[in-house]
Amino acid sequence: MDTGFTAEQDEIRRTLRELLRKHCGPEELRAALDTPAGHDPALWTALAGRLGLPGLALPEAYGGVGCSVTELALAAEESGRVLAPSPFLATAVLAAPLILALGTDAQRTRLLPRIADGTLTAALAVPGTSLATALTLTGDNGGEWAGGGRAGGVQARRAGEGWRLYGEAGQVLDGHSAGLLVVAAHTGGFARSRTLLFLVPGDAAGLVRVRQTALDATRPQARLQLRDVEAELLGSGDGDVLSALSALGDTAAAVLACEAVGAADRALERTVEYVKQREQFGRAIGSFQAVKHRLADVYVQVQAARSAAYYAAWATVHGEQAGGLALAQALEALRGAAAEGIQLHGGVGFTWEHEAHLYFKRASGDELLFGPVHRLRAHAADSAHLFEQGREVTV
């Protein structure tokens, strides 16, 4: 593994950091959260126009930049530093790779260039609270989360040459504002049921979208109700949807790990800046040994999480899977950095006006969506057969 970054990768990080510093400060962040979409469309347009962020990991044939998951993860790290609210995760990390992997040539040609230039946002809709299971992050992906052929979830049925969807999906990232929904639904009878993915326009007849109040306001979520909605099958129906979701899960985990590391690093930076300025008993509180020890522990935890996240991004490109463990370590580091930041900021750290609580909510919200940490680690151990008796494990 080459631990250095290329000049192009460093340029992506530098340019993105400068852009976000100018357009996503604390005031701009709060203003964006209060909009109906939950993000600033002008910022998304700038990210797409200047950096090609939505199409960073899409092939050049579809209008993308043609970079790897590593560049996508580095961009996520910079986005995580400022908790930038944008359709980046929902569109570029979750939805676009599925269209690329499973879509027909006509679907890719029609949709991916519009995603790459930022004019079309997309969201992955998974029934219930099963996103982590569908992505095989916290358990085996058997498809039962989509409805299992029974009541609940989202059901798909044939209607002439097309399909009709009926059901409900909650906690859909950016589902209230996305121009395109990639909906997971169950089709067929109970004995021969299977999970397929369908494309639904955001303005489809019979689709009801309601933005939900989320713990982490920087990750807007929606509840979708599909009332006999016309849908287009993603791909030809012969693709292995569950395998595609599992592969996407490891990639998404690596990107999310880098994003969490960026947030943790910034939370630590803010805390260090504060303890150098805040005085008590005639001296800066950062000079007290107890404070130094606490921040040193956080620093070590963040650096270890960064190494794991970078390795996971590299491993994804080289056919290895380390995303789940990296995500667990990164979320733990973010939670620790945010908690210490709130404590060491003292009274101001507990106020709504301060940004410290936003970092803690990001850690907690991501655990609710993609974890929790102990389940991420337990599933990684089960997948590696780590604790099976009588089985030789190569380390």
Average pLDDT number: 91
Estimate the strand proportion. 15-25%
For the biggest β-sheet, the strand order reads 2-3-7-5-4
- Radius of gyration (CA) equals 21 Å
Low-confidence stretches: none
Q: Compute the number of strand runs.
A: 9
Helix content: 40-55%
The global form is globular
What is the N-to-C order of secondary-structure elements (H for helix, E for strand)? HHHHHHEHEEEEEEHEEHHHH
Q: Distance between the terminal alpha carbons, to the nearest Å?
A: 17 Å
Largest sheet: 5 strands, mixed, barrel
Description:
The chain has 395 residues and is of the alpha+beta class. It has 12 helices and 9 strands. The chain has a 5-stranded mixed β-barrel with strand order 2-3-7-5-4. A two-stranded antiparallel sheet has the order 8-9. A hairpin with an 8-residue loop joins β6 and β7. The protein is globular and about 80 Å long. 51% of the residues are buried. The mean pLDDT is 91.
Task: Please give a handful of descriptors for the protein shown.
395 residues; 49% helix; two-stranded antiparallel sheet; globular; alpha+beta
